[in-house]
Amino acid sequence: MKKWLKKVGAGIVLPAMLALTACGGFTARLEDVPQYEDAEPFRFVAYMGPPPANSGSGEFATNPDYMTLENYQIMADCGFNYTTGMYENTKELYLKGLDLAQQVGMKYYVRDYSFTDGCIEGIIAAANSEEEAQAMLEQQQVSIKARFEEYSEYESFAGVLAVDEPAAARYPAIKVMNAWYEENFPETEFQVNLLPTYASLNQLFGTADTDKTYKDDYVGYFNEYVDTAVLSYDHYALSKIGTTNRLSNTYLQNLEIFANLAKESGKPFYVFLLTLGHWDYRTMEYYRDIAWQVYTAMAYGAVGAQTFTYWTNLSNGESENITNALVDRDGTRMPAWYAMQEVISEVRAFEDVYMNFEWQGVLPVVADEYESNAMTDLLLTPLESHPRIRSASTTADAIIGAFKDGEGRDGFMLSNITDPADNTGADITIEFNDAEKVVVYKKGRTLIYPLEDGKATFNLGSGEGWFIIPI
Question: Gene3D superfamilies, from UniProt (predicted)?
Answer without folding.
Answer: Glycosidases (3.20.20.80)
